[in-house]
Design a protein that fits this description.
2 copies of one chain form a homodimer. With 342 residues, chain A is α/β, with parallel strands linked by helices. In chain A, 44% of the residues lie in helices and 16% in strands. The first copy, chain A, binds a DNA duplex (30 and 30 nucleotides) through helix 2 and helix 4.
Chain lengths: 342, 342
Amino acid sequence: MKNNNSDFFRAKLEDVAAACGVTKMTVSRALRGVEGVSEKKRLKILEMAKKLNYVPDNSARTLAMTNSNLIGISIPTLYNDVFAELIDAMRETFRRAGYSTVIETTNYDKQNELEWVQRLISWRPAAIVLTGQEHLDETVDALRTQRIPTLEVWDAAKAPIDLAVGIDHYDAGFRLGRYVASLGYRRPAYVGAEQGFDPRAEARLRGLKQAFRDVGRVQDWTEIRTGYRSDPSAGGLGLHDAKAQAPDCDLVVFLNDHYALGGLMACHELGIRVPEDLGVVGFNGVPFSQSLKPLLTTMTSRRHDIGQIGAKKLLARLNGVSVRGAEILVGKVIEGTSTRPQ
Amino acid sequence: MKNNNSDFFRAKLEDVAAACGVTKMTVSRALRGVEGVSEKKRLKILEMAKKLNYVPDNSARTLAMTNSNLIGISIPTLYNDVFAELIDAMRETFRRAGYSTVIETTNYDKQNELEWVQRLISWRPAAIVLTGQEHLDETVDALRTQRIPTLEVWDAAKAPIDLAVGIDHYDAGFRLGRYVASLGYRRPAYVGAEQGFDPRAEARLRGLKQAFRDVGRVQDWTEIRTGYRSDPSAGGLGLHDAKAQAPDCDLVVFLNDHYALGGLMACHELGIRVPEDLGVVGFNGVPFSQSLKPLLTTMTSRRHDIGQIGAKKLLARLNGVSVRGAEILVGKVIEGTSTRPQ
DNA sequence: TAAAACAACGTTACCGGTAACTTTATTGGA
DNA sequence: TCCAATAAAGTTACCGGTAACGTTGTTTTA
């Protein structure tokens, strides 16, 4: 842990000041571009700072000023493009507003999330962004008692800690279900993760079922639970199981696009034609889903919009504008060719 | 940028100290678990700290101690699992050694990389990890003059700034080429990004060609340049082009697995059977490539090993152990079913 | 031409911790 | 029983910046 670069000299404000024959306060002003320094002297100071390889110390600065420009963003995993899009959208917005961001992955573990929040709070961040709305009580407490402006993205079903932007997953499932049900499918199967693993997916499934009930009076779904996360192989296994359990099913709705990819591959392997023999549906509308043949029927989870709208709301809050707590976006069906009218 | 929580009170060491009737130094010791505090008093202090919602201020701590436990990691993009694996492997190793990490994406822009390095240096990091070996001179200068222990991962062909761990991409291409050439393919095509975009891919291509020259006297490759990055659709377009330009080609080597996925989908669309009519090869061995049907022939880029070995080397350096500059790993062919003996 | 209004710096104090040293009990050994 | 050793705190100084205010010398303005 030691960093004993022995005799290494690192210039500080005072060194630059001494070299220029002024006080460190003048150097501080010159470097920050604050007025109160003659143009001639400023140039001299800037030159000298470069010559001495002066680098400001953020710890000292942050300590002296009471506000930081740091925003922390936590996502479950990097192994999924959906979070990449979310992050990109937010960072860009924050960056333009002069904030810098740090990213953390929780690996879907609430305890990890808590520990990160605690570490981050020590850095006195201007704000924190969390994914989802399921947190340990301690996490919520910490954010509340420290008065950290907090944004929850991805989901916005419950009352937020502070701000939240996301889509309503029940509604998303319902809309997706309404679309495929309208195509005439009547013997659907669902392939997802073990129950309790992904509450948002479960909400979508409830919406799906409701849509089929509403439209087509379909009551019984073949439900396959397999694997977890975004590993396509889980989708492949799921498809095998679904076909074994319900050989006459005409549609398989997968937990997400990754699962659906695995499912499509399994179809290919088994000689099942999509969409002729079977309809396949994913969720998220990740980039690769639109490169598949057939084009995957899925639904955008509006990651870019969530990120951008969320970031803007958070910025507004940081600027003292009062903003509504939760904002719910509506997912949009992508009508691919992996389903067709029956 | 202001964070004017007006009258909000945030407890500091002194507040906890006053509440316990001791000095802040004692509290500091108690909270850090440093010896010199009686057990009874320590418990009382811990309790009081919790009661007052005390949170240490990292800026003050970092300023007071001269060494930090922060490591910055920069990768090109989050839109690719390969970097996720790299990051995960490194973070875990760093975390266990007591370091915390921050992630940045450069979006393949060296100027972005430089600006991030400059920002990060202000935080006095213990070390910095960069991806690749292509940096602006200013970046290298900054790292050198500030004596920041630096690790370059992914590639290790050139002399490193400090430490480097990666695979030799020419060698990787050569090995991959030797394998597929040995299967009997003789009319290969390559589908990649525009020249100059991805120097590592170009190195692989040179290795590939050499292998075919060595083994089979194949001289002319059909080279298709299309798209960029990791968008599978670029691979699909590339396959169409390749088939148009060289209808009798028996093998298509793609820039990476993502391209290969697009290529496989295009084959499916065009009724080209893989591997019966055409061999398909990718690169990286990302998780989904092993869920494809046929199983993709590809090569691991050993991201997990690179991350872990790199992190360990860096830790050794931080602990004052002198370590060799560059370490080169060897990629390993994954013999899939998207190619077969001809 | 004297007072007021600046511009260009310097001074002082403080941000919230920690290292290193000193002081004050407490304990144990000869 | 007295002194050295040790444990448990307290003191002091400093980390590297910034805000707020004070001090000059030089212009304006009345």
